Task: inverse folding
């Protein structure tokens, strides 16, 4: 079984993501929302496809401005579904817009999306999945697991002997400090 740590180094797309983002603690709501959007859009596709379309997603979703995306209406949905530079899936587009509104509510109740995550941490992956399914749309076990691993809330992003793993440990990710 190959691991991301085996595949990513030196790769033009996977390498930078593996080395500088994957598994590192994320506390910024815009960055958390972006990661959630990317994970939702990866469902059924390769991560490489999503990474290659990342800049297009940033443009299409107003650089992941939560308030702007939450206010997207019918014309925005149609614009997104007509945009060949992103993944044009009606359910995924609707989920992104809906989830932006959910994050607005979480900011009201917990100060931020990160505050909501911290409030519920630590949970097992199964508990996180149940919580995300009650809270967000289009968030199954793989999406939730990858989102939480990629943002430092669940372990497993890197092998223990991966040099990036040591860098992440020095930043005290949530999964290592609970």
Result:
């Amino acid at each position: 079984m190959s691991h991301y740590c085996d595949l990513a180094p030196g790769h033009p797309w996977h390498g930078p993501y593996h080395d500088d983002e994957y598994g590192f603690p994320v506390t910024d709501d815009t960055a958390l929302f972006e990661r959630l959007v990317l994970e939702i859009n990866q469902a059924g596709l390769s991560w490489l496809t999503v990474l290659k379309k990342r800049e297009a997603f940033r443009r299409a979703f107003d650089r992941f401005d939560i308030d702007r995306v939450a206010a997207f209406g019918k014309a925005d949905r149609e614009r997104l579904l007509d945009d060949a530079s992103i993944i044009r899936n009606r359910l995924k587009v609707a989920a992104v817009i809906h989830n932006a509104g959910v994050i607005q509510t979480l900011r009201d109740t917990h100060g931020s999306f990160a505050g909501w995550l911290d409030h519920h941490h630590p949970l097992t992956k199964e508990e996180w999945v149940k919580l995300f399914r009650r809270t967000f749309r289009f968030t199954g076990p793989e999406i939730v697991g990858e989102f939480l691993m990629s943002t430092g809330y669940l372990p497993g992003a890197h092998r223990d002997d991966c040099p990036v793993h040591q860098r992440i440990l020095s930043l005290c990710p949530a999964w290592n400090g609970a």
